[in-house]
Design goal:
Strand order of the largest sheet of chain A: 2-3-4-1-5-6-8
Helix content of chain B: 10-25%
Strand content of chain A: 5-15%
Shape of chain A: elongated
Largest sheet of chain A: 7 strands, mixed
CATH class of chain B: Mainly Beta
Number of helices of chain A: 31
Oligomer: heterodimer
Distance between the termini of chain A: 68 Å
Number of helices of chain B: 2
Strand order of the largest sheet of chain B: 1-6-2-3-4-5
Largest interface: A-B, 50 and 36 residues
Number of strands of chain A: 10
Radius of gyration of chain B: 12 Å
CATH architecture of chain B: Roll
Radius of gyration of chain A: 31 Å
């Protein structure tokens, strides 16, 4: 305990920290990958859900530096939680995180003037700063010229080209090594100011600037940035005082609060606008004639983007293209993943058989733990990998090509109505396949509250794991009923209704949460449409592998643990009499019959029969019985209660659990006629059938709305970094499901159905 | 707000401009909110020329070209920007 912290401190002092900041789409991630290669890891700062990436760069002279890639931002005045993390990293305003030793402003040379605005802000702060120019390869291929030396002269800090070509980061690495070993300090620039006419109104504006300077001095002291940064930090505080925002920036918000609020809003707005304008002018003068293109109008490289946008954003062709793109994504999640998931199921089955044959038959409990607990648990985790990989590959391609921004442009009007960001569309669509990858995909939503709303409602979207339950119930209670209008199957109507119910529930709950516990304004839209680019294979690989690995490590452990717990619930306590009788009967059969299909069938029948009694005796069975008084008003009995408990592992487990409960073994699926027959024959105490169209409908509604999925809860826990939200979600969805089922069953009974 | 060239008779709002038209930002009216400030930071400052590229199929948002970049803005946010529509023959810096 005493020695370790010291060692860590020493290590931290040796590893120099370099932070890459820049506008969104400026080529920052490509540059980060070029610097860090395979060493990059995705991480979170304590208590913050926004991710950043960190990796090690080996610099000339053997110097190692830790390179941090933060979310892209247009300004150091953050407007979203993502941008706030970028700014807080820059200021060392996160618990346990030092200020960086060097800041690299990544600047897109093809968008020089706009990108230099951020540099103009950074240049006013006493941060060790250099500039890396990306996309210079694009300028080269357009036949243009980029005058790095002139730009370096104007900015007063080192500037290097960092094109996205092999060896493009060499110059930057050399510069990093030189800067990290140098002790020279560069002074920040004076804050860009613009004076207005000398009128009475202007006096207020000057007062606003003066108060801002006072606040800035307080911030500078708190940040340990030195008095020379007071003016710049004051401007930051001034702009922040105008932006009603829930993103946290404690270093500014907690310094001299209330001082600026005393100044009239109009004066503050004018002062802030003047400062922005002055900085824009500075950026403009810096950028003037630095990049000269041979073509007099727009660069050649943009011609393709303009032509494609004419189609992709066309009033008719655009929406059609978008439906096609998302249709392919949807299809991929549903059907391309299936062969891989079947393969995983096959491997899990083979592993189960192998474990059964290797483990001694004298220890049935151990064999059961290994197969039904551990191997099944690992299978429950791995089975999500194909869908996660496919979804994130698609997302990375859509994001990196620039298409996702176009989709948000087309969809914004609709999503505005729900009060959610255009980016919430992809996760909610993916929810039809599976909520687990969908919840992981909410990461693209920049604001924490909007992300949370999307996370909370996505499991209401009817996922593919509910299909077996729908199919079984519809086939059991609606088969044989008369077609509506003579040709529409009632089952089809029920199926469509369940999907409609799930969508209505998801949208209604989103609207409710947006207006109550997660109240926040409709997210603003300031969306850049970047030029289309070909995605980088390595970058796609990194995006997918990072997501899959985090899921396996963090959500996977939770899923595995819950699988083992559920196995315990369905296994213990063991009814010794039944188990002994079963083992005796199996031994007797094995002595009586020769090895072969007949003997196997006989043994299986004995097992299945005993399985029914054992499950009823288990904790899950007792829970089912204990639940019966509470779920009877919903039309359910204790057997369905066991199914509900067990289906927490995954909704489709409901079907195989009913198989066990009806003494048919666990190999039953929704197409099995013996299970359907057993269910149809089942009666209540009064002799009326248990499964009627009404009780079936009630159960279907329950499965649409209930949070019957531990893997989703594990994913939500991973994404929200606490048990609070998954437990809330479990609570509200269960309450919703019970309420809706109760309503369906009781209203149905009152109307004379049974 | 510092005005570029106050010519009241030619003042219009940014969100009313038809696609293809290039206008010059004159000033921002009303309370400068978070989105307005961000748009300033993206280059929609008084004196800057902005081209409306297109309107989204559902009528909102707008796609603008400013500082050589394409930016999408909702009409509600664009309506705060008072612009000067250059008369035929006026030269507007690209």
């Amino acid at each position: 305990m005493s020695a370790e912290p010291d060692v860590q401190q020493v290590v931290q002092q040796v590893v120099r920290r370099v932070v890459l900041v820049g506008n969104p789409n400026c080529g920052k991630t490509t540059l980060f990958n070029a610097l860090t290669g395979l060493s990059a890891k995705t991480g979170n700062y304590p208590g913050i859900t926004v991710e950043h990436r960190e990796g090690q760069a080996t610099l000339p002279g053997g110097l190692k530096a830790s390179v941090i890639d933060v979310p892209g931002t247009y300004s150091i005045v953050p407007r979203s939680d993502d941008e706030a993390v970028a700014v807080r990293v820059l200021f060392g305003d996160l618990p346990g995180v030092r200020r960086p030793d060097l800041v690299v402003a990544v600047v897109d040379a093809t968008q020089l003037e706009r990108n230099l605005y951020l540099v103009a802000q950074l240049r006013e702060l006493p941060l060790p700063l250099v500039v890396a120019l990306t996309m210079t390869d694009v300028i080269d291929s357009d036949g243009g010229v980029c005058d790095v030396e002139q730009l370096q002269h104007r900015l007063g800090i080192p500037v290097v080209k960092a094109p996205a070509i092999a060896g493009g980061a060499v110059a930057l690495k050399a510069l990093l090594a030189a800067e990290l070993t140098s002790t020279a300090r560069r002074l920040p620039m004076n804050v860009a100011r613009q004076t207005g006419p000398d009128t009475a109104a202007d006096a207020d504006v000057r007062r606003a600037s003066a108060v801002a300077d006072t606040v800035g001095a307080a911030v500078a002291t708190r940040a340990g940035l030195g008095p020379e940064s007071a003016a710049a930090l004051g401007q930051l505080a001034l702009q922040r005082s105008l932006t009603v925002t829930e993103t946290a920036l404690p270093i500014v918000d907690d310094s001299a609060p209330g001082l600026l609020a005393a100044v009239p809003v109009s004066a503050r707005a004018e002062a802030a606008a003047r400062a922005v304008q002055a900085r824009q002018l500075r950026a403009k003068s810096w950028a003037r004639d630095i990049v000269t293109s041979v073509s007099p109008h727009e660069a050649k490289s943009l011609a393709f983007t303009r032509r494609l946008d004419a189609v992709a954003l066309h009033p008719v062709a655009g929406p059609l293209l978008m439906v096609t793109v998302f249709g392919v994504l949807f299809q991929a999640l549903f059907s391309w993943a299936t062969p891989m998931m079947d393969l995983i199921d096959g491997v899990v089955g083979a592993a189960t058989d192998l474990a059964r044959s290797v483990l001694p038959a004298s220890l049935p409990l151990l064999s059961s733990l290994v197969t039904d607990g551990i191997i099944a648990g690992v299978g429950n985790v791995v089975v999500f990998v194909p869908q996660i990989a496919i979804l994130f590959l698609f997302l990375a391609v859509l994001e990196d090509t620039g298409y996702l921004a176009r989709a948000a442009f087309l969809l914004d009007r609709i999503m505005q109505g729900v009060g959610l960001h255009g980016r919430a569309f992809v996760p909610m669509l993916s929810g039809f396949a599976c909520a687990v990858p969908a919840i992981l995909a909410t990461r693209t939503i920049e604001n924490t509250k909007d992300r949370l709303v999307t996370i909370l409602v996505t499991p209401l979207v009817s996922c593919s794991a509910r299909l077996p339950v729908y199919a079984l119930m519809i086939a059991t209670v609606f088969a044989g009923t008369d077609p509506v209008f003579g040709f529409i199957e009632p089952g089809a109507i029920v199926m469509v209704s369940m999907y409609a119910l799930s969508m209505v529930a998801a949208i209604a709950m989103a609207a409710l949460f947006k207006r109550t516990i997660l109240r926040s304004p409709t997210p603003p839209l300031v969306l850049e449409l970047p030029p289309y680019r070909v995605p980088h294979a390595f970058q796609l690989y990194k995006a997918v592998s990072a997501r899959v690995m985090t899921f396996l490590k963090e959500a996977g452990t939770v899923i595995l643990a819950i699988t083992v717990v559920l196995w315990g619930l369905l296994t213990f306590p063991i009814d010794r009499d039944v188990a002994d009788a079963r083992d005796k009967a199996i031994k007797a059969t094995e002595l009586q019959l020769p090895a072969g299909a007949e003997r196997d069938a006989e043994v299986r029948a004995i097992r299945d029969n005993a399985g029914q009694a054992l499950v009823e005796h288990s904790i899950a069975g007792r829970l089912g019985h204990a639940m019966e008084p509470f779920i009877a008003p919903l039309g359910f009995d204790w057997k369905i209660g066991i199914g509900i408990v067990a289906s927490f592992a995954a909704r489709e487990v409901f079907v195989s659990t009913l198989g066990i409960v009806y003494g048919l073994g666990e190999a039953q699926d929704e197409t099995s006629t013996s299970l359907r027959d057993a269910m149809r024959k089942d009666t209540r105490a009064d002799g009326t059938p248990l499964y009627t169209p009404l009780s079936g409908l009630s159960l279907l509604v329950f499965f649409v709305l209930a949070m019957q999925c531990m893997s989703t809860l594990a994913a939500v826990k991973r994404e929200t970094r606490s048990w609070r939200w998954p437990l809330f979600q479990l609570g509200y969805m269960t309450a919703l499901a019970i309420g809706a089922s109760l309503l369906v069953y009781q209203v149905g009974l009152a109307l004379g159905f049974h | 707000m510092v005005s570029a060239a106050p010519t009241p008779d030619r003042r219009h709002r940014l969100h009313e401009q038809p696609p293809g038209r290039t206008v010059v930002i004159d000033h921002i009216e009303g309370r400068l909110d978070a989105t307005g400030l961000r748009l300033l930071e993206l280059g929609l400052v008084p004196g800057a020329s902005v081209t409306v590229i297109r309107v989204a199929p559902l009528g909102d948002p707008l796609e603008l070209s400013v500082l050589g970049t394409r930016v999408c803005v909702r009409k509600k946010d664009a309506s705060a920007f008072v612009v000067v529509v250059p008369a035929a023959g006026d030269r507007v810096a690209p």
